[in-house]
Amino acid sequence: VAQVQAWKDEYEATILGQLQEMGASCDFGRTRFTMDPVCATAVRTAFLRLFDEGLIERGRRLVNWDPVTRTALADDEVEMKDVDGRMWYLRYPLEDGSGHVTVATTRPETMLGDTAVAVNPRDPMAAGVRGKRVRLPIVGRVIPIVEDDYVVMPVSRGGDPADAKAQVASGFLKVTPAHDPNDWEIGLRHGLPAVNVMGPDGSISDRHGWTDASAEAKALVGLSREDARKAVVEWFRRNGLLEDEKPWKQTVGHSYRSGARIEPWLSEQWFVKVTDDRLRGAALRAMEPAQFDGKAPAGRGEGEGALRFYPARYARTFQQWHENLRDWCISRQLWWGHRIPVWSREARGEAAKVGASAPVGGAMVPVTSDWSKQGASHRVRRRDDGSLEELLCLPVGSDALVAGIEQQGFVQDPDVLDTWFSSALWPLSTLGWPDPAAFGMQGLLERYNPSAVLSTAREIITLWVSRMTMFNRHFLGGKVPFRHVFIHPVIQDGFGQRMSKSLGNGLDPRDIIHSHGADALRYTLLDMTTDTQDLRVPVEMVDPHGGEPFTPEFTRAPSGHQVAAPVQRSPGDPSKSMVSSYGAASGLAMPSEAQPLARNTSSRFDLGRNLATKLWNATRFVLANAPAPAAAVRRADLDRLDRWILSRVAHATRRADEALAEYRFSDYAAACYDLLWRDFCDWYLEAAKPSAKNDPRRQAVMLAALDAIVRLLHPAMPFVTEALWPALQARRAGGAIEGLSLPASEMLATATWPASDAGSHDAAAESDFDRLQSLVNAIRNIRGERQVPPKRRVRLHVSATAQTLVAGWNGLAEALAGLESVHPAQSPRASGAAAFPFEGAECWIDGLVDQADSGAERARLEKLIADRRRAVQGYQGKLG
Predict the structure, then answer these.
(1) Helix intervals (H) in 786-829
(2) Pick from 436, 561, 571, 439: which is nearest to 502 by CA?
(3) Cβ neighbours for 293, distance < 8 A, ≥ 6 positions apart
(4) What residues contact 624, with CB distance under 8 A and at least 6 apart?
(5) Can you tell me the distance from the alpha carbon of 652 to that of 657, in angstroms, rounded to the nearest whole number?
(6) How do residues 429-469 score in pLDDT, each as one tens digit?
(7) How far is CA 499 from the centre of its chain?
(8) Which of 443, 481, 570, 621 is deepest in the core (most CB within 10 A)?
(9) Cis peptide upstream of residue 297 (ω within 30 degrees of 0)
(10) Strands (E), 399-544
């Protein structure tokens, strides 16, 4: 325990350090770990209450079993994978000697536990075998043939041709209730026994419920399930009972812990009855009715309809999970965790009397006793074998009671709780529930539960979101734990693989901070956060000694995982290989000096770094060109350019507000980008540059617009914006722009959001400037195509409407497009002029080349023509 605690402490420090370096605004003084006393108290209290309410029970059921870690798993801890397998066709002789039936199976080894053969009642073959029995090969057990609609009929006997299973079905299904969840349900419908033929390690065993093994069957005991499969198939082949076998791709559950194939296994476990309306029904009624697929369940109480998902499609995942829910297996056969607070013994005295009428199968009957009067929940239940078990669930702080009951033969359950049981209580336990005052947390539960939003990944909807909703509503009188659930994207590497330490393809955020900066990391992640839930981020390695980034090669480690291999020598020291930061965790053998000589990074984050640089340089320019801004500026005194940028600020603020309200973070990032880079830097500063130093009002507008941009960008890029804030505020002191509210603040983190009044939106200025931008861009495109030097002034010939537009902006078009003069467009065009369309009229520019350059221009055009002709010939050759 001490070793694992030390491991936890090390990685906790790493995780918290990552959050701090990324600029996460967490209350780090209230960090919690699931084994903290406050969480342990919540777990014990919740378990006792659910136990007392009959919502927790113990019983022998089919569970998802991990034969490697030897523990049960919940349904949502099982990862489904497509694997290549085979379909075997086994002949089972009829007991009366009249022939045989052929069962199709992908798991021949489980036939040792068959307790029936099933056929669809609509199958034409059903009538001929109705009421008959078969003698199970190898074992010798005589088992019935039952009729059940679950069985897939083959296509040749009326099965659905579109059903892949019907293409390979034999029409007869071997029923093994102890080793298949569907067979378990068939067994319940037909009252079949369940024979468990495996041990906890997945080997064939006769010590867990298999009592009728023949001498021939006992020869298989001790074999692994894989070896037993081979032995069973070989036995059927040798005895002429293997009719056929075919390749078959199937979906098989695997353990998220060990990666091993899950074994459906019959064992005694603890379950929360989440199928009860008090839990499942409460979670469904919490959904916002507008997001419910179908008729939303009725309910008007606390928290009804208060839970909304973003993106909305994940509400369907939440709904479907609850509509198809099975009871939750919460016991785990692990050695660290919250131990189940139940003590038991063979029932005695009053408990035995009360339990005389107890039903078989886990249902518990309450007992009134001295222990129950001291706060314990006293129950008795009848086991499957008919014996009576007496159970005590003890409250927190009952150490003296524990000592007393253990002296009387009670033993605590050795299992621990599923970690998601304590996680389900997270919105409660971290705020001190059930007794905040005992932990100095008065008022926190009322203040922070429900919270505004939970941000999580889509695979956690079933594991966590569901359970937090059920438990919060159950223990807090119907309150939801959060009002909104935002499902964020999953980041993959450039090949579409999930990032992991074992693959060595992960990105430690600190590596991106090292190569690009925290602001670039944050902004780029926001920009990538669209409704698309899988984002590919190509991973590169960089040498801290100055080498060029390179893409890692991958090799196979002995474990079978891909790991980043040393692929390049360090320029700083050719004797040292560059290896992934995660190489050590992957199990790859590394040099003795193998501190990470390379960091992982990605060029995807260049976007954020470039934007941070743009903001820094824009701020330097504004501060250098706004030495004496006006103290106060009225809207009526502003020219069209200043009104335009203030209107764009108002537009971007509205756009950001709308995006953030709907958790559309990429739209928020785009709104900030467009305002800073395109509107402010590319157009406004370029247009304002000639006059800014001599115009106090323009200086005030420049500073105010930049102030608003910095506020809008602060959630995405807190470090660079906070660093620029003092200089910006010092220059803006006392300045005010009518219609734009930007109150002064010592820190940007506590400053208000920009607020523009309705008059700030200037539709006319925006419309006219859009037209001017189109004209200038057309001219710039031609200048670029013709490779006109930036300093050369050209002459523009335009329609009367366009000439009025240019004149209305007081020389702005001339400055932005490098124009010498503007003239009416009159035919004929000058020799060498370049024409372009604008607003339905032909315009042109001349003066693109002078006489001295005309030969060079002709040579450039001739080379371009020759290149195009060669391209045409190439295409014609390919087509030919």
Answers:
(1) 800-808, 812-817
(2) 561
(3) 315, 316, 319
(4) none
(5) 8
(6) 999 999 999 999 999 999 999 999 999 999 899 999 999 99
(7) 12
(8) 481
(9) no
(10) 411-412, 416-417, 451-456, 482-487, 490-493, 534-537, 540-542
Mean per-residue pLDDT over the chain, rounded: 89
Amino acid identity of residue 628, one-letter, is: A
Tokens of residue 278, six digits? 């008090």
Virtual CA dihedral for 296, 300, 303, 306, nearest 10 degrees? Answer: 50
Residue 480 has pLDDT above 80, yes or no: yes
The CA-atom distances, in angstroms, between 204 and each of 108, 208, 440 are 12, 10, 54
Task: Enumerate the H helices of 135-212 as residue ranges.
Answer: 164-168, 181-190
What one-character DSSP code corresponds to residue 55? Answer: -
Residue 557 scores a pLDDT above 50: no
Secondary structure class of 452 (helix, strand, coil): strand
- What pLDDT does 563 receive? 32
Q: Which residues contact 387 (CB under 8 A, 6 or more apart)?
A: 346
Strands 263-272 and 451-456 turn out to be unpaired
| The residue count for the chain | 880
What is d(CA 521, CA 717) in angstroms, rounded to the nearest whole number? 9
Question: Are 622 and 538 spatial neighbours (Cβ–Cβ below 8 Å)?
Answer: no
DSSP, collapsed to helix, strand or coil, labels residue 95 as coil
The C-alpha atoms of residue 600 and residue 514 are separated, in whole angstroms, by 10
Eight-class DSSP state of 203: B
Q: For residues 787-814, b (16+ Cβ closer than 10 Å) or e, as one string?
A: ebeeeeebbbbbbeebbebbeebeebbb
> Does the pLDDT value for residue 51 go beyond 90?
yes
For the beta carbon of residue 95, count every other beta carbon within 10 angstroms: 15
Strand partners, 490: 534
Q: Please tell me the distance from the alpha carbon of residue 581 to that of residue 552, in angstroms, as a whole number.
A: 12
Identity of the amino acid at 615: L
Q: pLDDT for 411-440, tens place per residue?
A: 999 999 999 999 999 999 999 999 999 999
Q: In whole angstroms, what is the distance from residue 40 CA to residue 21 CA?
A: 30
Q: Rg (Cα) of the chain, in Å, rounded? A: 37
In angstroms, the CA 535 to CA 22 distance is: 20
What pLDDT score was predicted for residue 732? Answer: 85
Amino acid at 827: S
Q: Which two tokens stand for residue 17?
A: 């350090």
Half-sphere exposure of 20 (CA within 13 A, CB side): 10
Calculate ∠ Cα 96-101-105, nearest 5°: 140
Helix (H, G, I), strand (E, B) or coil at 837: strand
Instruction: Please spell the DSSP secondary structure of 665-721, one letter per residue.
Output: HHHHHHHHHIIIIIIIIIIIIHHHTTTGGG-HHHHHHHHHHHHHHHHHHTTT-HHHH
Both tokens of 112, joined, read 């040792």
CB atoms within 10 A of CB 350: 14
Q: Going by C-beta distance under 8 Å and a sequence separation of 6 or more, which residues neighbour residue 623?
A: 727, 728, 731
Residue 552 has what DSSP assignment?
P
pLDDT digits 0-9 by tens, 580-612: 332 333 333 333 333 445 678 889 999 999 999
Nearest to 263 by CA among 235, 213, 224: 224
The DSSP secondary structure of 50-114, one letter per residue, reads: HHHTT-EEEEEEEEEEETTTTEEE-GGGEEEEEEEEEEEEEEEEBTTSS-EEEEEES-GGGGGG-
Euclidean distance between CA atoms 474 and 278, whole angstroms: 7
What is the phi-psi region of residue 383: left when phi exceeds 0, alpha when psi lies from -120 to 50, beta otherwise? Answer: beta
Q: How confident is the model at residue 547 (pLDDT cuts 50, 70, 90)?
A: low
Contact 380, 367 (CB under 8 A): yes
Question: Can you read off the two tokens belonging to residue 707?
Answer: 């102030």
Q: Which of 464, 474, 460, 481 is nearest to 306 (CA)?
A: 481
DSSP string, 345-389: EE--HHHHHHGGGPPBSS-EEE---HHHHTT-EEEEEE-TTS-EE
Burial of 127 (0-12, 13-18, 19+ CB in 10 A): exposed
Tokens of 585: 């965790």
Give pLDDT, residue 859.
85
